[in-house]
Write a structure and sequence with these properties.
alpha+beta; 4 strands; Beta-Lactamase
């Protein structure tokens, strides 16, 4: 009988299947957790951005009505000192820019929110805030890296556990095969005697 290559053995198949199951489960878990965490952090960032835009709209209502540019500059400077705010723009009802700070163009990975400045039911202006998502992206990268590291650890532990399990199972099978071989060998000797 031709000896089996290692990848054809029962031991290899047990180790490979356990490792593959671990890999699939861990990668699925990492993807689900990281995506869920990113959605949650984006919602929190959006909520905070809307709250800040609402505060800026309330603070700038009178300055927009009177076109007090000095007060609007102070309000915009205050907003820019908040974490992650990269661009602030305040316009009047005719969409004329009264005050603007930050880059002229909004970057693709920024979150932009708008809040209407109202007096009663009537819109008198608009506040536009753009915030960087870089902190969210950094935290997601760190979570992804941690997840991949834990996946590697799980692969090593799963592979080791699979190897130990296969060694135990194949040890029992090898013992059984030895016993069967001995029985077969004894039957051959008895036939020769007869």
């Amino acid at each position: 009988m031709k000896p089996l290559r290692y990848y054809q053995t029962f031991r290899f198949k047990v180790v490979a299947s356990i490792t593959l199951v671990h890999l699939i489960l861990m990668l699925t878990l990492v993807i689900v957790v990281v995506q869920g965490q990113e959605r949650t952090m984006d919602r929190v960032l959006h909520k905070n951005a809307e709250s800040l835009a609402r505060m800026v709209a309330i603070a700038s209502r009178n300055a927009v009505l009177t076109e007090n540019l000095g007060t609007l500059q102070e309000i915009v400077r205050y907003a820019l000192h908040k974490s992650g705010v990269r661009r602030v723009r305040i316009t009047n009802a005719q969409r004329v820019v009264l005050e603007r700070r930050g880059p002229a163009r909004v970057r693709a990975r920024w979150l932009t929110v708008h809040h209407t400045i109202r007096v009663g039911r009537y819109p008198v202006g608009l506040v536009t805030l753009s915030l960087s998502r870089s902190s969210v992206l950094r935290q997601m990268a760190a979570a992804r890296d941690t997840g991949l590291f834990l996946t590697l650890v799980a692969l090593i532990l799963g592979g080791g556990a699979g190897w130990l399990l296969s060694r135990h199972l194949t040890g029992d099978l090898e013992g059984l095969m030895r016993d069967v071989g001995q029985l077969g060998g004894n039957d051959g000797e008895e036939e020769r005697r007869v």
